[in-house]
Amino acid sequence: MDILEKVLILIWLVLPAYVANGAPVVGIKILDKLGYRRHPIDRGKHLFDGKRIFGDNKTWEGFLIGIASGTLAGVVQQFLGDFDYIYIARGVVLSIGAMVGDLLGAFIKRRLGIKPGDPLPFIDQTSFLYVALLVALPLNLLNISFIDFSILTIVTVFLHVLTNFVAYKLKLKHVPW
């Protein structure tokens, strides 16, 4: 198997996490145009350090859009694949893990005093993937090696930077990261 084939297989395996991570940007943009009021997950609360827990950008709407979209990606994979229900289970678990990982990244950024929307290299690109893998691997929904993990990290960083730039150019995001 050549490296391109390996990369494509790995992307296919974690696709629900990628979809879950990216979908809220589009979904929230649609809800904003409809005049829907967002609901921050942290409800505006601050921790003992005086900083917001997650910030206004982490909303219940985005969280649920991410999980629903990633799960739908798993359903589509099931129909495009060999009709094995593991795709759906993997879709649900990877999506939930990705959204929790994204929240973890926001939590870390707030603790470091980084404002919502400001970059934190590597954490911004990988927290969603790492938590998704951390949840899916013990459930035997994925079987990847350390080399696979390393390839996914490199590919994810590259794809994250690329897709965020495209989203910025399409005016879906205010910043290109």
Structural commentary:
By secondary structure, the chain is mainly alpha-helical. The protein has one domain (3-169). 66% of the residues lie in helices and 0% in strands. The protein contains five helices and no strands. It has helices at 3-33, 60-80, 86-111, 123-136, 146-169. The longest helix has 31 residues, at 3-33. The termini are far apart. The model has no long low-confidence stretch (mean pLDDT 95).
Could you outline the blueprint of secondary structure elements for this entry?
Elements (H helix, E strand, L loop, with lengths): L2 H31 L26 H21 L5 H26 L11 H14 L9 H24 L8
Helix pairs in contact: 1-2, 1-3, 1-4, 1-5, 2-3, 3-4
List low-confidence stretches. none
Structural class: mainly alpha
Distance between the termini: 33 Å
What is the count of DSSP helices, taking H or I runs of 4+ residues?
Answer: 5
Estimate what percentage of residues fall within beta strands. Answer: under 5%
Helical content band: 55-70%
Query: What series of H and E elements makes up the topology?
Result: HHHHH
Number of domains: 1
Average pLDDT: 95
How would you sum up the major sheet? none
Shape field = globular
Rg over CA atoms: 16 Å
